[in-house]
Write a structure and sequence with these properties.
heterodimer; A: about 120 residues; B: about 290 residues; 4-stranded antiparallel beta sheet; disordered C terminus
């Protein structure tokens, strides 16, 4: 985890990634707040904040007295949201860096295609 | 949320020196609060005021809603572990634990015994014959097993090795999760302890410099790196904490950048890097001492 960004956001993102890559399936139980806190060595309140973020977004839901579970349809919604953010997070800096190095859009496209074919 | 500690205009003078100068803050119930600052910043004096071991020169501090000075009811709910704790000459490790069992109503003897095993403390050794790390371990064990509603740990792990420090962090978190209470931790090892904290109070020169939620503090500062002219143009009129330059390249640390400003910086060809809590506090406390001197 990097220390320059709010930890609760990183906790939320990490859970999201696990849902996206299928290591946490829909309708399965998410680690408890205390387990998350102990594993990452973070304050339980911080872990709770990260999980609450996902509960508010409808990605996780609470079963009273049992714990948190991954909601139905969570993966599709996360993939959609991440795809939308992909342009800002990856494509824009990629193009900016390419421009700084004098790589033309055509060259860049060719490079991406080559990488994808590997 | 209820405040366990409330300080209003709290001041402590030693001769002409203001060790704590007109400090106002509160600490909420069930939190792990970091009390951070440089040597001589006033951390220990503040802890002594909170535990009634020192009279204030002005202002007041309430603990559980009352003044802690000479109040047995407040002090029974409080545990204060100091780095430089002095023990009677004849005291062995086991005597410290036996005394703690008498003093703290929530003392958990089984838990203390488990911790003694894990920290490998030689209980039959006299306290003054123990190594610095072993003495610190005894302090940590008392602080954890006391399960006091308010626990103050002043530099609790001087001399503890990396393994023992990790052990301490793990136990602190696990026991805090199982038995929520209010913990105030002063430390120099900010990067190591930062993730444990949910609140941060930074003192410098006896004053409170930062009093904030740990998560909102993280990510407030960024370091910008780029061409000297571009950096200079960008930071004009902004809150600059630190500035370094090598050749044509400059690196500045800034706080309070909005998302739009961050995007501007990227557009201007500057590189953004996150700043850790420790770096942020170092640049903050370095700055103010310079201001005081000039």
């Amino acid at each position: 985890m990097d220390d320059g960004r709010p930890i609760f956001l990183q906790i939320a993102e990490q859970l999201e990634s696990q849902i996206i890559d299928g290591s946490m399936r829909e309708e399965t139980q998410v680690p408890s707040i205390n387990d998350l806190a102990a594993f990452h060595r973070i304050n339980p309140a911080t872990a709770l904040k990260g999980v609450t973020l996902l509960v508010d977004a409808g990605i996780l839901y609470k079963r009273r007295g049992i714990g948190m579970f991954v909601a139905q349809g969570a993966r599709d919604r996360l993939v959609a949201a991440r795809t939308e953010a992909f342009q800002d997070t990856y494509v824009r800096p990629l193009v900016a860096q390419a421009r700084a190095l004098g790589i033309s859009p055509e060259q860049l496209t060719a490079m991406i295609r080559k990488e994808a074919e590997q | 949320m209820t405040a366990v500690i409330e300080a209003r205009g709290l001041t402590k003078q030693f001769g002409k020196v203001d060790a704590v100068a007109d400090v106002t803050f509160s600490v909420q119930e069930h939190s792990i609060c970091g009390l951070l600052g440089r040597n001589g910043a006033g951390k220990s004096t503040l802890m002594r005021l909170i535990t009634g071991q020192e009279f204030s020169s002005a202002g007041e501090v309430d603990v559980f809603g009352r003044s802690p000075v000479e109040d047995a009811a407040v002090l029974a709910r409080t545990c204060f572990v100091r780095e430089s704790q002095i023990y009677p000459d004849s005291f062995r490790g086991k005597h410290v634990l036996r005394a703690a069992a008498h003093l703290f109503p929530n003392w958990d003897a089984d838990y203390a015994a488990r911790l003694v095993d894990e920290f490998r403390v030689p209980l039959n050794r006299r306290m003054k014959k123990m190594s610095r790390g072993q003495r610190s371990a005894v302090g940590v064990i008392v602080g954890l097993a006391a399960r006091a509603e308010l626990t103050l740990l002043d530099e609790p792990y001087a001399g503890l090795d990396a393994v023992a420090r990790d052990l301490f962090y793990d136990h602190l978190l696990a026991d805090y999760s199982a038995n929520p209470r209010t913990i105030i931790l002063s430390t120099h090892l900010i990067d190591e302890a930062a993730r444990l904290l949910d609140h941060v109070i930074v003192v410098d020169g006896g004053r409170v410099l930062i009093d904030a939620d740990a998560d909102s503090l993280r990510g407030t500062a960024v370091t910008l790196v780029g061409g000297h002219a571009a950096v200079e143009r960008f930071v004009e009129g902004k809150d600059v904490l630190g500035w370094e330059a090598i050749g044509g390249i400059a690196s500045v640390t800034l706080t309070g950048l909005s998302d739009a400003e961050r995007a501007d910086a990227v557009a201007a060809g500057l590189e953004l890097a996150p700043v850790s809590l420790q770096q942020l506090i170092v640049s903050r406390t370095r700055n103010t001492t310079q201001e005081v001197r000039s």
